[in-house]
Write a structure and sequence with these properties.
The model has no long low-confidence stretch (mean pLDDT 92). The protein has one domain. The protein is globular. It starts with a helix and ends in a 9-residue tail after the last helix. By secondary structure, it is mainly alpha-helical. It contains twelve helices and no strands.
């Protein structure tokens, strides 16, 4: 019902700015709900968000103000993290050309809480490493050598963050990407354990979908590039 109502409002440019903000916020809340529930409606709503932004003339048309800036931070984050689950081409182009926008939220909180600078710095490093892992695999095709060194570097950085510390829950997307590239049993168990720990804390169903997808990736690894498999369940893992 909510999705159908939003699809009716695709002519968002006909509304005033306040109403546009409300519509965009509603779409973002729905995307988060779909992520939490592991729903396969994610691609539909993701495209609704993209269509709404195109209709108003792009992100910059959201104007200034606290709400507009909040919306932009969330849009940038969801767009970057959601893109690999739409298609390999969308994931690659978004990470290359818009990847830095995915750090907007992190930069905002880094300035808001400077005492946690080191924690934010490690989180930023892990997100960038996840970008690099995804782009490495996408660029090499099905027969590229495993990037075990990149996964090991990621694991070493993650181990510097104490279990249960600030921001650990924000690393689900990055850890899932690293886990997808993991070939050794040691790495696979490490990332599976991390994801299971996050599920035990939040109960977010998308984490279970992530673990299921990892099993499929490991079964099909020799036949198909895992970056092409991410869109298959049509869920948003973050």
């Amino acid at each position: 019902m909510a999705i159908r109502e939003l699809q009716k409002k695709r002519s968002i440019d006909k509304y005033d700015l306040e109403t546009q903000h409300v519509i965009i916020l509603t779409i973002l809340v729905l995307l988060v709900a779909l992520m939490v529930n592991g729903s396969s409606d994610f691609p539909i709503v993701f495209h609704v968000l993209q269509s709404a932004l195109q209709a108003i003339g792009g992100d910059s048309k959201l104007a200034e103000g606290d709400l507009a800036q909040f919306l932009l931070r969330q849009i940038h984050k969801i767009r970057v993290y959601g893109a690999p689950f739409i298609s390999q081409d969308v994931g690659t182009s978004t990470l290359i050309f818009e990847g830095q926008q995915g750090f907007d939220c992190l930069e905002y909180y880094r300035h808001l809480y400077p005492t946690y600078f080191d924690s934010f710095d490690r989180i930023a490093s892990l997100r960038q490493q996840a970008y690099d892992i995804y782009l490495y695999r996408a660029s090499l095709g099905d027969d590229g050598a495993p990037s075990t060194h990149l996964v090991e570097d990621f694991k070493s950085t993650l181990e510097q963050i104490p279990e249960g510390s600030l921001g650990e829950h924000s690393l689900i997307w990055a850890c899932f990407i690293a886990a997808s590239e993991s070939h050794s049993l040691e790495h696979q168990l490490f990332f599976d354990t991390f994801l299971k720990r996050q599920f035990s804390r939040s109960g977010f169903v998308n984490i279970l979908r992530a673990l299921d997808l990892l099993q499929e990736i490991r079964k099909k690894r020799k036949r198909e590039n895992w970056t092409k498999l991410l869109p298959e369940p049509q869920v948003f893992i973050m």
